[in-house]
Amino acid sequence: MAQSVYDIEFKTITGKSLPFSAYKGKVVLVVNTASRCGYTKQYGGLQELYAQYADAGLVVLGVPSNDFSNQEPGSNEEIKTFCEVNFNITFPMTEKVVVTGNEAHPFFQWATANGGSKPRWNFSKYLIGRDGRLVDSYSAITTPAGLKKDIEKALAQPTP
User: Fold this and answer.
1) Which of 8, 30, 50, 115 can pair with 91 through a Cys bridge, CB separation 3.0 to 4.6 Å?
2) What span, in angstroms and rounded, lies between the C-alpha atoms of 125 and 33?
3) Radius of gyration of the chain (CA)
4) Between β-strands 125-128 and 134-138, what pairing exists: parallel, antiparallel or unpaired?
5) What domains does the chain contain, in order, with CATH numbers?
6) pLDDT averages per 10-residue partition of the chain, 160 residues
7) What are phi and psi of 89, to 5 degrees?
8) Active-site positions?
9) Residue 97: enclosing H or E segment and its boundaries?
């Protein structure tokens, strides 16, 4: 298991390498997403957070997963198109990954090992501070707007 979040790597939704270390010194909100979920409308709120706080150092990272009730059955290209057409998503998206169980992507294993809750549904959220530590994890019912105070507090921390 990864010792640091910066040891973890994703692939972008277009298949390119995306090392978490690229976000050193940033505040990162990682969200497991799905296109056919009752919470899918949260994409709009996530894009608003990204637009509002990106210049201050926030990165929203969407991580599509089909782990819950087959709510993300599409290909990476279909997911990318859905997000762009329906929500004008400009924040980075990863390829579709597993987020639960023994086959969970290393990020979700790391987050759970570092005090975060296991994803129990789509749109579970994980806030990583500028220092690479898990600030907190949030359930799907926590709206993007409901994260503003925690994001602002994390952004106020000095870059290590």
Assistant:
1) 50
2) 9
3) 14
4) antiparallel
5) 5-156 (3.40.30.10)
6) 90 97 97 97 98 98 97 96 97 98 96 96 98 97 98 93
7) -65, 130
8) 37
9) none
